[in-house]
Structures are given as C-alpha cells and as structure tokens.
Amino acid sequence: MRVAVGIDLGGTFIKGAIVDEQGHLLVKDEVATQSVRGSEWILQRIIQLTKDLIVKSGVDASFVTGLGIGIPGFIDSDLGVAIEVINIGWHDVAVVEPLQTALHMPVYMENDANLAALGESFAGAGRGFRSALCITLGTGVGGGIVIDGHVLQGASHMAGEIGHLVLDPQGAPCNCGHYGCLETVSSATGVVRLVHEGIARGEVTALEYQQFTAADVFAAANHGDELAQQVILVAAETLGRGLAMAANLLNPDVIVIGGGMARAGEILFAPVRKSFQSYALQRVSQAVRIVPALLGNDAGVVGAGKLALYS
Amino acid sequence: MRVAVGIDLGGTFIKGAIVDEQGHLLVKDEVATQSVRGSEWILQRIIQLTKDLIVKSGVDASFVTGLGIGIPGFIDSDLGVAIEVINIGWHDVAVVEPLQTALHMPVYMENDANLAALGESFAGAGRGFRSALCITLGTGVGGGIVIDGHVLQGASHMAGEIGHLVLDPQGAPCNCGHYGCLETVSSATGVVRLVHEGIARGEVTALEYQQFTAADVFAAANHGDELAQQVILVAAETLGRGLAMAANLLNPDVIVIGGGMARAGEILFAPVRKSFQSYALQRVSQAVRIVPALLGNDAGVVGAGKLALYS
C-alpha cells in the first residue's frame, strides 16, 4: 500500500488528508489558516497537520510516498515557490524546500484549481476519462485541464483560465483588467450582479427587498421568479458558449462542473448543455459529457494526494 | 542515422519526403492526387512515391524507421482509418493497414493540420519551445496544439479547431453550421468577404473593379487602400482575440502563424499582437511569443516524418 498526504491551502482553512492509490481519503482534517501570522507560521501548521494526519491514519510512515500541496495563487513549481498568493498575503514564499526538510519526503506543488481538476479527474466525475476540463463556479470561474492523468500547466502555470475568456468585449469590467470575461457573467458574483442590473432597470423580483447570494437567486428561480430565471439562463448560455470554445480547442472526453452553483442541478445544466451544443462543433459535442463534480470540497486534497502519488 | 518517410496527402498533390532526426528533408517530391481515380489508386501512388523517395535519398532501407501520413479530414488513428475526407471523396478508407502491408514498415496517421503544427514545432518556428499553438490562415483557419513534442489529439481527433471559436454569435454563417466563427473573419475567405461587404455598403476601394484574392487585399492595403486596411485590421483584431482565448486556456510558449496570409508580415502581425495583449491575461501574454511559420508547405511532411520517427 502506498498513500500520500494531500494539503489544500486556502484563505480560511488548511485542509489535509491521507489519500490512497484509489483516491480515497483515509483521514481528513482542517485547521484555520490565520494568514496574519505569516508564512513561516503557516508552514509550521502544515507540517504539524501532516504529522497529525499520518498518526491518525494509523499508516506506517514508510508507506507515505510524499506530500502534494495546492496553493491558491501563482506558483513556480520548478523552483517550489509561491510567487503571489493574494488571499493570504504571500509573495515569493519558498514552500517545497522547507516542507521537504521538515518532513523528509518529496513535496509537490500545484495551484489549487489545477489540483481540484486533477482530483475530480482521478477519483471523481472525470474518473476513467482520458481528458477532462474541470471548472469551478464560485466567486470567479476557475478551471483546470487534465490530459492522460497530468495537469496541463502551460508556459507560466496559467493553463485552464477559462474564466477569463473575453466573450463580450463590451461587457462588464473584470478583476483581471479586461471587460466581458466569462466570469463576469457565469460566476456567483456575476449572477448577483445581473440581478442587481435587472432591479436597476425596474424589473420586478422577490429578491429586491433583501441582501441576496447566488444561492438565493437559484432558490427564487425555482419558485418562479422571472428575473432570477432570466439571469440564470444568461449565465448558463454564456457558460455553454465558453465551454464550447474550450472544447473546440481541447476536444475533451468530459467537462466537469463544480462549485456552489453546480449544486443547482438541471436548472443550470440543461441550458448549459443546450447552449454548448449550439456553439461546439458536432464531432466535439458528440464526444463529450458535461457532468457535475462529485468530490465537493475534497477535490483539492484528493488531487494533491494524486500529484504526490503519481508524479 | 534514422530517417522516416513523411507523406502529406492533399486534394491536389501528394507531397512526400525523407525526413531525418533533425527534421531536415533529404529529398522531397510530389505527385498529382487525381482523387477521381479512387482510394486504392491513391494508396498505390503513395506506395510508389515512398519507394521512389527512399531510392532517391540513397539511404539504406534498414534506416527507414516508418512512415507518417497526414490526412486532410477526419480520421480514427486507433483504427488507422480515414473517416471522412471531403476534398478527395474518401469515406471510411483503411489507410494504415494497406500501407504497412505493402511497405513493411510501421505507419502512423494524423490529420494534416496537426502534422503541420507538429512540423513547425519540431523543426520550424516552434523549435525549442515546450508547447506550441500553430495555426494556418488559408481558406479556413486550421490549428494544432503540440505539447512536449506530441500533438494534442482530443477525444475524437478534433483538438485545435481554433477556426470554429464562435467570437460573434450574430456574425456571418460558417461552413460548420454555426455563425460568427473566427474563420468567417480571419481567413483568406473572410478577408475577401469583408471587402465585398464594404463595397456593398458603398465604400470606395481600388479593388471594386476586379476579381480579387486575399493577397490582392493585402497588396491594396500596402498601397494605401483604406477599405483594405480596415478589413485587415478587423481580421487581425479578431484573430488576436481568438488567439488570446486559446492562450488563456493553453498558456502556450509560442504561437506560430502560417498560411498564405501570414506572409503579409507586420501589417498583419502588429495588430494581431496588440489585440492579443488586450484580451490575454498578463501572465499569459508575457510568457508567449507570436511568430510567423518557417516551413511553408513543407510543414506537413516534416511533421509526418517526426510522427514516424518519435511515436
């Protein structure tokens, strides 16, 4: 038996797990990130979490082949350095070397969206498919591309940035500095923004008397709110077009959609699939399945474990 | 020394060459395809061309490791079958088995756009880069993606179809059945169409009194024709946006632009690069070079040879 440690570093929590060769989690745990304490303290937390997980799992340390860690920002995996991690205030922090020295095992680093994609591809909705495009609908739209079991990294670790396809150059401003990126429409943020725009235009909606989230918009749509239904249709159709573009380039076997919005089910997936078909080449469309993610918040640690097990 | 036979099957000519391990051509030749004579006759032509090339090259047959062949249509490389090749009227033609039987060497098949990309990546403008997106501007816009020396095939051999990114859903109809694909604007066909549209709107151009090609449009633009200049700017800006989308997904080290239009030089490349930068993520843009192809019409046979040498 071989296992690996999977770590998913987030702005709020550090998640960790012991992952086996089938992608199952033997144990998992999480601790608060407390980013204000700085990078050295956080690395110590990761080291302690790792040791605790190994002990809890009951697995002999000699079976632990390594540690994989997902970083929520820009990384240089050759140097083992986190270049810029805005959420936790990191800038040029060496990650791989201090963890390897303290833990005496090989350490592999990747960005968190790519590891979530790798996790879903390895042991989730993408299992058994040769190539997968995995996207996460959250505050933004993240993405990762997995081909033959490996993450496509690209020249500067930026591959998979489907959220920044400029679908409408006259569209809303995006955090990246451009306009009309996919994630300005088809993210949780985008859905909330579009409802606010509808309200400003004078459209009637049950949502106008409350603070609301994307989940509230989906709930309202399920209760027949027309503006909410319109907005979800726009978000879904836009997503379908973006996915069709990505699929015409990548011709993936499966597209896995995760994140909070993906839990909405067919109210989202049905129009996404319809829009996808009307923009993708027929041979591309026929070859692909569009499915919801299966691993939820565990995707990152599963992918981190997979990275360490099979690198 | 190892060499391979590279064959590029086209609608008009069958090109062939003996390719060495550096991607140099020892000899090359071409014969008319004469597609009306049917697939058996054409396969015999390829067999004879191969035998002649080996003799002409003076290389001992024992050094010939195999044959690669590019097919201008849809293929199934696992089965070794050309599924549909509209240009030469093929439908479900077995290619690999009859060639292997007649020539007693391994035969590898790929579509022609992918082999042109592989050729440029191996021994042309993409040489030395880990990942390349190679596009060809011709009647349409073809593309191929090469990562670590291998063509990205995709689930149904359709990867790299950048010409069918739907950039403007309200745009002109495309041969693929959709509207506003990149190739409706940024191909030779697209450039000619846009000039005709300008003429129909009553714009003045030196081109309106003649039959003209995309090459004529570039020549007119170089002589100060305003409509021709406008059209090339639109084609270049649209191409830049499509390439930026592809680059945000793939994060390639190099983008190689080939085909007749690419010979126009900076009148095309300068606005393509500018548009690319305004739509690509900064870290993607900083990591990539956009360069003209180097191998011209030889890219296909070089790629075919590379496929046979290193599969």
UniProtKB/TrEMBL annotation, chains A, B:
Name of encoding gene: glcK
Superkingdom in the source lineage: Bacteria
Chain coiled-coil ranges: none
Record organism: Sulfoacidibacillus ferrooxidans
GO biological process: glycolytic process
Keyword annotations of the record: ATP-binding, Kinase, Nucleotide-binding, Transferase
Entry EC number(s): 2.7.1.2
PROSITE patterns: ROK
Name under which the protein is recorded: Glucokinase
Gene3D superfamilies the UniProt entry points to: 3.30.420.40
